[in-house]
Amino acid sequence: MLVPGKISAEIRLSKSPIEPEVEAFLNIQRTAEIQLGQLTQLLRPLGLSPAQYNVLRILRGAGEQGLPCGEIATRMISRDPDITRLIDRMEQRGWVTRTRSNQDRRVVTVSAQPAALEILAALDEQVAILHRSQFSPFNASRVLTLISLLEELR
């Protein structure tokens, strides 16, 4: 019998019971999808995708010197198979600039532009509020426990 509120009921899984590891995996995926959808809705009015938002945050952290494309790809939360095309779209919008290295012409460094940094600054509090809301069922100790468990799992 399926229990309401459980992942099995939520995704209308016909097999019951399911192995705990499968249930845990499905719960992680479903929760991530829901939370990412909420972030997507927050970013959409600004024309930003979650991947673009991630890139801009990475570049803000890198400072004025920027980062090579490969390093950006390595630091992304969700891997984008075509980082070059993602950067192309961001450059067209005036959010980033690319500079080819004089020492090694194969290396292209990407830097965030002031317009992108302004967008991030405007989003910082809204994103923080969203994340506090997403994790509001937990007190600070449980959030830290969740972080620890997920890090151990990875």
Kindly report how far apart the N and C termini lie: 31 Å
Radius of gyration, CA atoms, in whole angstroms: 19 Å
Low-confidence stretches: none
- Percent of residues in helices comes to 55-70%
- CATH architect. name of the largest domain: Orthogonal Bundle
CATH superfamily of the largest domain: Winged helix-like DNA-binding domain superfamily/Winged helix DNA-binding domain
Order of helices and strands: HHHEHHEEHH
* The top level CATH class name of the largest domain: Mainly Alpha
- Biggest sheet strand line-up: 1-3-2
Mean pLDDT across every amino acid position: 90
Query: What class, by secondary structure content?
Result: mainly alpha
Q: The CATH topology of the largest domain, please?
A: Arc Repressor Mutant, subunit A
Whole-number count of domains: 2
Q: What is the overall number of helices? A: 7
Strand percentage lies at 5-15%
How would you summarize this macromolecular structure in one to three sentences?
With 154 residues, this protein is mainly alpha-helical. The chain has helices at 7-10, 20-43, 50-62, 69-75, 83-92, 114-134, 140-153; strands at residues 67-68, 96-100, 108-112. Helix 2 (20-43) crosses helix 6 (114-134).
